[in-house]
Design goal:
The complex is a heterodimer of chains A (255) and B (223).
Chain A (H helix, E strand, L loop, with lengths): L5 E10 L2 E11 L4 E5 L6 H8 L7 E6 L2 E2 L2 E4 L2 E4 L2 H8 L2 E4 L11 H11 L5 H14 L15 H14 L4 E5 L7 H16 L4 E4 L3 H7 L2 E6 L2 E6 L1 H6 L4 H8 L4
Parallel strand pairs in A: 3-10, 3-11, 8-9, 9-10
Antiparallel strand pairs in A: 1-2, 1-4, 4-5, 6-7, 11-12
Helix pairs in contact in A: 3-4, 3-5, 4-5, 5-6
Chain B lengths: L9 H43 L2 H16 L2 H11 L9 H27 L2 H9 L4 H31 L11 H12 L2 H30 L3
The chains are: A alpha/beta (255), B mainly alpha (223).
Chain lengths: 255, 223
């Protein structure tokens, strides 16, 4: 039994009076690919953003490789970590966003090398080499010098994936990465993610692509109203669901 | 010896005052440049305070920008030259001129920077954070390059305003273009022609700045 690389335990998160996460616990072992499905507002994106420390949370612990991130205990008091620690904790995970969020003033290559040079302090040559390698792996070796505005949505998202993974995170987080793509561009992005899964990358994927989740995941989580309603193999979730909410969710979702 | 070589003409008068006029042009350009330079740096910091500062910093920055933008530059110039010395800070005319124009442009740059930073999609900051960039790295490498491109046209406008506004510091005795030409006119009474010359010189400086701005804008455009 390997040690989990990501442990989320009893996570609670409020937006004002509204509790969006009501005690969520998930463990990911190295190489696990876990998809999170559920209707909008169920808290799945919020969960992902908590793992990346883009959101603060009121209760619960997130550990990466056994070390708590974002917060620490001072006696019995839970305190937020210093900015410096939060910045370095964030670099442990790689996040890919629904809206790509590439830096428009930088080329595809520069988008990837920025963090390598400024955060990891790699030389320009080394950073460029890594960037070119990843651009090759996501199928865009010829677009290194293109600006995001010159790329299609699918190509931009593949650059964004390369940018996140080139920084060498322990876990990749995907937040509805195909939701703002035209249907014919979705496959090229999902293929890249599948390849990463085959390479053994640990991944937490929020998605609306049920067929993809079914194919790529070791486990699937169905979130409902801030809680994990069902967690199981793709078979448990998609083929023989027992939970009533999940059944009605799947009935209203096209594969 | 012939002392009378005909009536003085516009060109003979320009010839006589050539040195003074060129010095005036140089004064206008260097004062404007210094004011824009200092004002831009001040403006970036005030703009940062307006956007990301805590409540105290935001209120102070807001008071500065609103106050300065609400009073005429001329009043600002006179205040710095005549009022500030009462507080024990002695500025000569050139320093007071540069300071007042810098304070003026700083307030305008601050507003531009705030507007530009706020218009950048928050996903940009999040993506930078997610990659492990800290705040200053995010600002320097991600936000500011985008904000600067956005404010460039307005910034050029303000720079032209500063060049034109620098004519006001003639009132505290700085011999820039306007004052240099006024001194010439005091001798030859050719008001029409020399104020015309002043207009042409200001136009050339302002127009060149705008063309330069357009050129830089084309170079920096995000493809």
């Amino acid at each position: 039994m390997s040690k989990p690389v990501l442990e989320i335990s009893n996570l609670h998160k409020n937006y004002g009076d509204r509790e969006v996460l009501k005690g969520v616990s998930v463990n990911l072992n190295p190489g696990d690919v876990v998809s999170i499905i559920g209707s909008s507002g169920s808290g799945k994106t919020t969960l992902l953003r908590c793992v990346n420390l883009l959101e603060e949370y009121e209760q619960g612990v997130i550990r990466i490789d056994g070390n708590e991130i974002g917060y620490r205990m001072e006696g019995a008091k839970r305190v937020k970590e210093k900015n410096r620690k939060i910045v370095s904790d964030r670099a442990l995970t790689g996040m890919v966003f629904q809206s790509f969020n590439l830096f428009p003033h930088l080329t595809a290559k520069e988008n990837i090398t920025l963090a390598l040079r400024k955060v990891q302090k790699k030389s320009n040559a080394e950073a460029t080499e890594i960037a070119m390698e990843w651009l090759g792996k996501v199928g865009l070796p010829g677009r290194a010098d293109s600006y995001p505005g010159q790329l299609s949505g699918g190509q931009q998202q593949r650059v964004a994936i390369a940018r996140a993974i080139a920084a060498n995170p322990k876990i990749m987080l995907f937040d509805e990465v195909t939701s703002s793509l035209d249907p014919e561009l979705i496959t090229e992005v999902l293929d890249v993610i599948k390849k990463l899964a085959d390479d053994g990358m640990t991944m937490l994927i929020v998605t609306h692509e049920m067929a993809f989740a079914n194919e790529v995941s070791d486990r699937v989580i169905f979130m409902n109203d801030g809680l994990i309603a069902v967690e199981g193999s793709p078979r448990d979730v998609f083929i023989s669901p027992e939970n009533e909410r999940l059944k009605s969710f799947l009935k209203n979702t096209k594969f | 010896m012939n002392f009378i070589s005909g009536d003085p003409t516009f060109w003979s008068e320009v010839g006589i005052s050539k040195g003074a006029i060129l010095q005036g042009i140089w004064m206008t350009i260097s004062i404007s440049f210094a004011a824009i330079f200092i004002g831009t740096i001040v403006g970036i910091f005030i703009g940062l305070a307006l956007t990301y500062g805590n409540i105290v910093a935001r209120i102070l920055a807001r008071i500065y920008t609103d106050f300065v933008r609400g009073i005429p530059v001329l009043v600002l110039i006179l205040a710095l030259y005549y009022v500030v010395p009462i507080l024990g800070i002695n500025l000569n005319a050139i320093q007071a001129g540069i300071a007042s124009l810098a304070i003026f442009s700083g307030a305008h740059v601050a507003e531009m920077v705030r507007g530009a930073l706020q218009s950048i999609h928050k996903g940009q900051t999040e993506a930078a954070k997610a990659l492990g960039l800290n705040f200053s790295q995010t600002f320097i490498f991600v936000l500011m390059p985008q904000a600067l491109r956005q404010i460039l046209p307005t910034w050029i406008n303000t720079s032209v305003e500063i060049v034109k506004g620098s004519s006001l510091i003639s009132i505290i005795g700085v011999v820039e273009i306007t004052y240099a030409l006024q001194q010439t006119m005091a001798r030859n009474y050719m008001f029409m022609k020399f104020y015309g010359l002043a207009a042409i010189i200001y136009f050339i400086i302002g127009y060149s700045l705008e063309r330069l701005g357009k050129f830089v804008e084309r170079k920096l455009i995000i493809k």
